[in-house]
Amino acid sequence: MNKPIRKAAVIGSGIMGSGIAAQLANAGIPCLLLDIVPKQLTEAETAKGYTLDHPAVRNRLATAAIAHLSKIKPAPLYDESFAQRITPGNLEDHLALISEVDWVIEVVVENLDVKKQLLATVEQHWKPGIVISSNTSGISINAMVEGRSEEFRKHFLGTHFFNPPRYMKLIEVIPGIETDPSLVKELSRFCERKLGKTVVLAKDTPNFIANRIGTFGLLVTLREMAEKGYTVEEVDAVTGPAMGRPKSATFRTLDLVGLDTFVHVADNVFANVDDEAEKKVFEAPEVLKEMVTRRWLGEKTGQGFYKKI
Ligand code: NAD
């Protein structure tokens, strides 16, 4: 790492991107938070007479994400001014600002093509010395930077934060084949000292360590339930608070993660392992796919295994 991390850019302002930006800001690191430009107006925007090129509309996604995070009760474990250190906006209008930060974190949807395309765009505004990482849950780090320059690949690695970043201390750091080893060491030290994380180094295998084991467990649980007739409530009762795990009941966690993200994560192992027995376990069950089709994605849409009331 050529220079210390003093300023960051987080691309993707969903569940994880907004949480990661908040954590960086809370650690005193000013942070850009960038998302796509919305393609449709909301009812409120239409009522105000806005058009799609109004700045409030173009920057809406990241702005709304930070407003949402600021309202979480009980208050996030952050000093109240954390939001002032985040500049929300859309990626399209603010691409040039990427050259001014020290660390860019990609936190967009779990899809290899989308991530590859985004990194190609970022490279056009990237300068050697800027660290670039992905928060992917398990997509190959090496595959994401195919086609990028050698210099870019040296500065690229996986930094897998867990949900929600403000509570979860674990971070998996995943070097690619060409990542500069000194960058891996220094960024890991930064995550430990500045963000209070516990770093686990992982190899670039499908879903790394935590999601290889975690996804396996969840999919086996779903199959056992179907076979044995266990209910969602019963499984959560034996995996949640009563077991000394206040926030980790199985289906509450799935609703927090997002069912669409979970299916992408399972599909990633399914598509990338050769062993037939393992492939079979990682095949997402129809019930999950059906829920995604219905947009029962969990907390982000208000309905998942539980309904938000
Ligand atoms: P999300 O669906 O909540 O948010 C994704 C955001 O990315 C959306 O706001 C979307 O508009 C934006 N986006 C999509 N394409 C974009 C582009 N080209 N440029 C800019 N923004 C773009 O997803 P999430 O749960 O925050 O997951 C993001 C990443 O973090 C994924 O790779 C996921 O696997 C990983 N992750 C998720 C969790 C979890 O529990 N949800 C945990 C760890 C890691």
TrEMBL record:
Residues 208-307 form the 3-hydroxyacyl-CoA dehydrogenase C-terminal domain. Residues 7-205 form the 3-hydroxyacyl-CoA dehydrogenase NAD binding domain. It comes from the Bacteria. Belongs to the 3-hydroxyacyl-CoA dehydrogenase family. This is 3-hydroxyacyl-CoA dehydrogenase/enoyl-CoA hydratase family protein. It comes from Paenibacillus puldeungensis.
